[in-house]
């Protein structure tokens, strides 16, 4: 067992570095995903110009368009 004061301080510092790097990684990935998939994402040029009159499900037309 490590009982030296230097080793205890090193262990605490290492633990803080690992925890802070995990938090940073999680937050940066969340921000990146929000930019890609969130409400303010960049939409394709033809987004929203289509008006569907019917839906095809398993090779059959479904005109009920239940939202």
Question: What report would you give on this structure?
Answer:
This protein has a two-stranded antiparallel ribbon with strand order 1-2. The longest helix has 33 residues, at 5-37. The chain has 1 helix and 2 strands. It has 67 residues and is mainly α. The protein has a domain at 1-39. The protein is rod-shaped, with a radius of gyration of 26 Å.
Q: What are the key terms here?
A:
mainly alpha, two-stranded antiparallel sheet, rod-shaped
Distance linking N and C termini: 63 Å
Q: Give a count of the beta strands, DSSP E runs of length 2 or more.
A: 2
> Mind describing the biggest β-sheet?
2 strands, antiparallel
Would you tell me the structural class of the helices and strands? mainly alpha
Concise account of the structure shown:
With 67 residues, the chain is mainly α. 49% of the residues lie in helices and 9% in strands.
What's the arrangement of secondary structure elements?
Layout: H1 5-37, E1 55-57, E2 60-62
Antiparallel strand pairs: 1-2
């Amino acid at each position: 067992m490590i009982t030296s004061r230097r080793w205890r301080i090193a262990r605490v510092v290492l633990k803080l570095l690992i925890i802070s790097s995990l938090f940073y990684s999680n937050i940066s990935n969340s921000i990146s995903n929000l930019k890609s998939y969130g409400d303010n994402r960049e939409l394709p040029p033809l987004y929203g110009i289509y008006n569907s009159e019917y839906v095809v499900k398993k090779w059959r037309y479904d005109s009920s368009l239940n939202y």
